[in-house]
Amino acid sequence: MKESNDVSDLDIKHIDPTLYNEDLAPLKPQDRNWGAFEIFNVWSNDIQSLFGYTLAASLFLTYGLNGWAVMAAIILAGVIVMFLVNLTGKPSVKYGIPFPVMVRASMGIRGANLPAMLRAIVGIFWYGVQTYFASTAVTLLITAFFGTGNGSTFLGLSGVAWVSFVIVWLFQIAIFWQGIERIKHFLNWAGPLVYVVMLVLMIIVWYQAGSELIPAIGTIFSGDGETSGSSIAAFMAIVGTMVAYFAAVVINFGDFTRFVKTERQMKLGNLLGLPLNVAFFSFIALIITAGTLVLFGEALTNPADIVERVDSLPLTIIAALTFFAATVGINLVANFIPPAYDLANLFPSKISFKMGGLITAVIAFFVGALWLSVISQIGVPGFVNALGAVVAPFYGIIVVDYYLIKRQHLNMQELFSSAPDSAYYYVNGWNTRALIAFGAAALFSLSTVLVPALSSLGGYGWLIGAGLGGLFYYGLMRQFKTAPTYAEQKAS
């Protein structure tokens, strides 16, 4: 089956309601209005969350490495992720399609539902958890003005905490119900604001620490801490940890780049938003962490703890609003948009992007409400982390398929066709070779989570799983320079 090179005509000629709706359809270049700034803010909101700050700050303290080596490892991770997302983002810039449509080319028109649903489950779970964490910032704000209430709790949450949780949940629904443009505007506002407040916090801590700050930085940079294993192993563990932090967005980055006009803008946004942004944000984290060592006698890595120790009502108000914006921002980027598209791909005729988002929000409400009292206590996060590891091989499969097998050419008409002789129908809509490659690679990436003997590989298990997925897929598919039809695969 001959592949089409023409991307000027992205109108789908024959509508198959099991594969098509307007949210999944190719977005034409004239209908796109994202540029480098919007892509930069996708990463800003991903990095500048409460967890992102805590992770960056803790890396300076955990591995016993010289601080400059930690900075180098963090920047290297940013460069690696930039390279990875440039690969997954490019086809969606070219064709204007989201991740669940893109993955049809390698997994088959029906097989695409497997990676889409695994990604959706992970996204929905963490959407609920992050909604809870965002609500803690609102709780901090309400408590600063009105106190903690009478102290009674339900499912581990006080009355103020429940009010805060519902406020955040409704706020997020209000944003996404107005569409992707409203989400874009929120990200464009939240990203720079977080930077401003973090800079202000850094200046306050620096001012209060005074002349003792530089020696404290020297202490953190000395690398005198306990080191387990070699320095190279510690360096690679930091790189792997940071790459794994971004892994959720790496696979479905096409969900964002389909709105970008040119590949050049995508690459510029990734350059500014990843290695440069990560380096600058990590530097801020380092200065603040060193300042807390001077001011409080211990290195604090949680921004909420720092604000509480500083004990300033204006700072509490500003910080609470910022933590709220940062956490909602990462929630929309990493945990809302992907499952909204993934659920729409499952039943396109019945589920739109908005409806997929609403389903995500409803399920996530119960996850967030039960997080403190139930879910965090029974090991469910381990299950979800295992699912995240399982998703890793799909990255390698997608990239190898598009660049080495399909040679960067997809047939848009046949991505939305369920005809048995169409290019991506394979065997009853499933590419059995891709399933084998996925299964073999997933066994390894899953074992890094579940097998204690391989726990040392957990930091970079995602990278190895993705590499194995691509390697196995190429070995099984290299004889097909375009996707085989059903008849060709059956004959083989």
From TrEMBL:
Q: Member of which family?
A: Belongs to the purine-cytosine permease (2.A.39) family.
Q: Where in the cell is it found?
A: Membrane
Q: Please give the Gene Ontology molecular function terms for this protein.
A: nucleobase transmembrane transporter activity
Q: Does the keyword Signal apply?
A: no
Q: Where are the transmembrane segments?
A: 68-87, 124-148, 154-177, 189-209, 229-253, 274-297, 317-337, 358-380, 386-405, 434-454, 460-476
Bilayer disposition of the protein = Multi-pass membrane protein
The species this protein was found in: Vreelandella titanicae BH1
Gene3D superfamilies (alphabetical)? Hydantoin permease (1.10.4160.10)
GO annotation, cellular component aspect: plasma membrane
Name the CDD domains for this protein: SLC-NCS1sbd_u1
Q: Which UniProt keywords apply?
A: Membrane, Transmembrane, Transmembrane helix
**Protein name, per record:** Permease, cytosine/purines, uracil, thiamine, allantoin
